[in-house]
UniProtKB/TrEMBL annotation:
This is L-ornithine N(5)-oxygenase. It comes from the Eukaryota. It comes from Corethron hystrix.
């Protein structure tokens, strides 16, 4: 979440307060009821009249009283739990731990009294593990007192490139790098992005195998690199007083005098793709790579203004393609192709596209005047670049996955980027002719 300045990240309490204020505002409209502390049990069997009206009943349990009650859904049930994040504080450890060892969830770390002489073992190399290390360093823990279990290295996004006023323009680097002569196979792509300053790696001598959209800035990266005791032997299988059994063998370690911090929960789980728009329900998934919240807003807008009367579920599913959260580097390919497909097609839908360009959750809506002018001047070139990049990604998809993509990139009835680019060029030429005529008139009358 962005706070008062474009570079300041909001702390957790401010995000929680914001959600609370939004919910209160929504409840005051009389159109929203918030039932906290309830558990969804599933749909009830439809009666004959409900089949005729399209209504459906769903069972809910009050977790405080343990009483069940039924909710009537007139339109569609929206399932936002399909991509539910794994939360460390409520999940059991993924590996056996011998009794007596000091293993805590990462949430506990943030309320624990930190002493400068404590020793810590951070288990997990995702964004949670990185945040835990940065937290400890900020509280004066010596880097030499931190041991880091890194099962796999991942490419990291450079947050310094994400100033909202120009982030959309900076994102063109994905296509500029893709179309570089040096990128003749997909394995060359991420190093090219790194060369252009868009992504980082933790250790310059190790080629990452993961891509999960974790984001750090250059200062945080340097802090992480101060931790030298890094163990790369795969995932932890179990922990004993004398060490850890890991995927690549047993590692003898001093465990008893360490606080073991479990950072292994997956905040962005990868689930099989299912249709978003289904009979009687909507299943929220990412439409834009690693952007679940913005995607949910876009899905909501599409359903609100298009509904079943304007486009059927099948037609909407052809436009709004979900993409799985990437895990491996090669997962970038289908995620980017699906994201590009949806965003370009949405742009041609007047009541959805115009709203999306103004939506605060869409980074493009924060572009400043300079960025917008640069976009306009390069629009023809950008659209051509996107189509060429799409073609190259299709090639890489076949090489990496052994098959073509399973969807139509440009469905019938929608313009390709080249078609749009041709229209843009005609508009640009018309504008130039108009300006030239205007200048000629001014000169002739002076």
């Amino acid at each position: 979440a962005i706070s008062h300045s474009s570079s300041e990240l909001s702390p957790g309490y401010r995000v929680s307060n914001y959600f609370k204020e939004v919910m209160l505002d929504l409840e005051q409209t009389g159109r929203v009821l918030h039932w906290g502390g309830r558990e969804y049990l599933g749909s009830a069997e439809k009666s004959t009249s409900e089949h005729q009206t399209g209504f459906s009943r769903h069972n809910i349990r009050d977790l405080l009283t343990n009483k069940n009650f039924t909710v009537m859904v007139r339109k569609k049930l929206v399932n936002t739990t399909y991509l539910e994040a794994s939360i460390p504080s409520v999940n059991k450890f993924k590996f056996p731990v011998s009794p007596g060892l000091n293993v805590i969830s990462v949430n506990t770390l943030f309320v624990k009294k930190i002493h400068g002489k404590d020793n810590f073992t951070i288990i997990g190399a995702g964004k949670t593990g990185m945040d835990a290390i940065i937290f400890l360093l900020a509280r004066g823990v010596d880097p030499d007192r931190i041991r880091w279990i890194v099962p796999n290295d991942a490419w990291l996004l450079n947050r310094d490139r994400f100033d909202p006023s120009c982030a959309a323009y900076n994102d063109l680097v994905y296509f500029e790098a893709l179309l570089s002569d040096s990128v003749d196979k997909f394995s060359s792509y991420f190093p090219e992005l790194e060369k252009r300053g868009h992504i980082f790696r933790l250790d310059p001598s190790i080629t990452p195998t993961k891509w999960r959209c974790a984001t750090v800035n250059s200062e945080e990266l340097e802090d992480l690199r101060t931790v030298k005791n890094v163990i790369r032997r795969g995932r932890v299988l179990c922990i004993t007083p004398t060490g850890m059994n890991m995927e690549k063998g047993i590692t003898e370690l001093s465990i008893k005098n360490h606080v073991l911090v479990d950072c292994t929960s997956n905040g962005m789980p990868s689930k099989p793709i299912v249709p978003i728009f289904q009979e009687g329900r909507i299943v929220i998934q990412s439409l834009i790579m690693c952007q679940v919240v913005a995607s949910a807003a876009l899905i909501g807008r599409a359903e609100a203004v298009m509904g079943d009367d304007e486009k059927s579920d099948a037609e909407k599913n052809e436009i709004f393609l979900p993409c799985s959260s990437p895990q491996l580097c090669r997962d970038f390919i289908p995620a980017m192709l699906r994201s590009l497909h949806t965003q370009l097609l949405v742009g041609s839908l007047s009541r959805v596209g115009s709203w999306w360009r103004r939506c605060r959750l869409n980074v493009e809506s924060h572009s400043d005047f300079r960025t917008n002018v640069k976009f306009m001047l390069r629009m023809h070139e950008i659209l051509k670049m996107m189509e060429a990049g799409s073609t190259k990604l299709h090639k890489f998809h076949k090489e990496e996955f052994g098959k073509e993509v399973d969807f139509d990139m440009w469905p019938e009835g929608f313009q390709t980027p080249s078609d749009i680019a041709h229209t843009v060029r005609l508009h640009q030429l018309s504008a130039l002719v108009f300006l030239a005529a205007l200048v000629a008139i001014v000169i002739a009358t002076t």
